[in-house]
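Team,

Forwarding the record for the chain on the shared tracking sheet. I've put the sequence and predicted structure together so nobody has to dig through attachments.
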Amino acid sequence: MKRITSLLVFSFSFLVSFAQQAGVKMVADGHYRGARQELEHFLDEASEDTKGVEEAEALMLVCDYVLGMPGTADQMADWTEEHALSPYVDVLRVFSRNLLVKEGRIDEALASFFEDQEKSVSIQTPLAYPLTGLSDEVYGYQSVLYRLAGEKLYDEGKFDKAVGYLEMGEKTRTSLYKQGMCYYNMGQWEKSMATLTESAGEANADEDEMAQNAFLHAGIAALQLKKSSDARKLFFLASQMNHNPALREQAFYNYCLTLHEGQSNNTVDAMENFLKEFPTSKWATPISQCLTEVYMQKKDYSKALNAISKVQTPDAGTQADKQKVLYNLAFQELNLNHLQDALAYASQAVAQGKQDVETYAESYYIKGDCNYRLGNYDQAVNDLNTALNLAQQLPGGKLKNHDFAVYSLGYALFKQQKYNASITQFQKVLAMEGVSSTSKSMKADAYNRIGDSYLNMRNYAEANANYALAKETDHALGDYSMLQQAYIEGLNGNYDQKIQMIDQMMTEYPASTLGGKAMYEQGRAYVLSGKEDEATSTFSIISMRYPNSEYAQKASEELANMVANIAIQDSIAKAQELQAIELAKAPVVKAQMLYNEEKYQEAEQVLNQAIDEGIGKPYWLAKAFILLSDIYRAEGRTVEAKQTLESLKANYKEEDDIKDLIEERLKILKN
C-alpha cells in the first residue's frame, strides 16, 4: 500500500512539473495563450515550495503582457517589488513601463525609467530562453521613453540632462524644438541652429508659435556663430509669422540689426517700418539710434537731425553764424554752472542743424552734460552718444572735451542702471592717454564706478579687483574703495573681515568724509555677527562724533531697534514656554476628567496616544504615568500599576511633587 501511495505522489508531482515545463516551452515557442493555461494549471496545483513557482508567475505576467490583459502593468509592479532578486525583475519592469506608456500613465512610466537609469539597469538582447522571441518588445517603447524623459527634463529647465535623452529618443517636431533649445541654453550654437531650423521646417503651412520661436532662436544662434547672412534669413522668416506678435517684434528688430550690420540697402526702409509698426517698442530707441547712424554714415544730416530732434533747417549761412554764437553762450553758462540757461542755448544750437559739424557736435556735448547734471539721464545718454558719434566726423575723430564726454556718458548710463554699458564707457576712460592729476583722479573714479557696476550686478570678485585698482591709481580716493570692499565682505557674510577692513580704512583715512557711513556699516556688521555690546558702542560713538550726519539718526534708530528686539525675544520665549506647557497638560486634564467619570478605557486611550505622540514637558509626562497607574488600580490591574510607578520613580529626576505622588500611590498599593 505504501508503494502505491508513493507512486501516486510521484505521478502527481511529475504531472505538475510537466505542466510547468510545457508552459515554459510554449512561452519560448510564442504560444502565449496556451502557455498561460499550462502555467496557471501548474500554479494551481503547486505549493509555495515547489520548484519553478517564481518563474511560472513571472512568465504568466509576460503572457498577460503579450495578450493585453487589463491591470498587467500594476501586477508586474507588485510582483517585481516582492521578488526583487528574481532574474525576471528587470525585464518585467521594462514591460510594465511599456504598458504604462501605452495606457497614457506617463509620469509613472518615467518614474520607473529614471529609477532604472540611476541604477544603470541594462537589458541585453536577444533575451535568454524562454523570452528570446520578445527581444523587440523590450525596446518597443524605449525611444518614446527617452523622448518623454528628455521633454520632462527640458520642461524642468535641466537642459544638460535633457539633451542626452532627446538625442536618443524618437524624433518629433516638439522634441526637435526642445532639443534645439537645450543646445541653445547650453551655448552649443551650431547644433542649436541646425536642430531648431529642422524643427521649424517640419511645421505645417499654417505655421505656429513654436516654429516662429524656433526660427528666432536659430537666428540668435547664427549670430553667435557670426553667420550674419543665415541669421538675417532666419529672423526674416520669424518676422513674417503673425502667430505671436511679441516674437514677431523681436525677430523684426533683430532682422533690422542684421541689415544694419551688413550695410544693406534695405536697412532704412526696414527700420522705418519697424518704428511705424512698433512705435512704443522697447527696441524703438536703439532702432532709432541705428537709423540715425545710417543717415550719419551717408552724411545726410537733414535726415539725421529729423531722426533725433525733428527740427527743420533754416538758411545755411544764418544758421552757421547763429550756431556758433549759441554754442559759445552755452559753454559760458555751463562754466558758471547756470545749467538751465546752458541747456537752453545748447538746444538752440543743435536746432540749427549741420551748418558747422564741429560746433554741432560740441553743442550736443554741452546739452548732454547739462542734462546729466540736472538728472535727466535718458536724455543725457542720447545727447552724449550723439556728440561722440558726430565727433567721428571730425579731424582726429574726437571732441574738444572728448574725455569728459565719455566720462559723463559712463555716469549717465550708471544712473540708468545700465551697468554693462556703463562699464564699457568707464573702460574707455581708463584707456585714455595722459598722466595729469586730473586724468589720474578721473581714472581712479572710473575704477570705482566700474566696481560699483559689478557690485550692483553681484559680481563681487570683479568689483573687489576694480576697487583695489582705484586705490592704487589715486590714493586720495581709496577711502571709498576700501569701504566698498568692506561692504562686499558683509554681503558675503564675512562680518569679522568687514569690521577689520573698516578699522583699517579709518586708520588710513582718519579725516575721511565717509567716517559716519563707515562706522554705521561697522555697527551693522557687529549686529549681524551677534556682537551686541560692540554694536551698541559703535552706534553710540557715531551719535557723538557725527551728530549732524544722517548716520547719527540711523545709529539712534539701530540702538532703539536693538532694545526693542531684546524685549520682543523675551516675550516670545515666555509665550512659547506657556504654550508648550498647555499642550503637554491638555491630554492629562482630559484623561483625568474621563477617569473621574469612571470611563477608564477612554482615559487610558487618551493617555497612551499622548505618550506615543510625545508629551513635551517631563512634569506632565510623569503626571500621565501616575494617572495611568490610577486607572490600572481602579481596574484591578495592580501589578501594572505598581510597575508603572516604580519605573517612573527610578527615572524621574526633577525635584517637585511628583515623587510624593508616587510614594502615596505605592503605599496604597501595598495596603
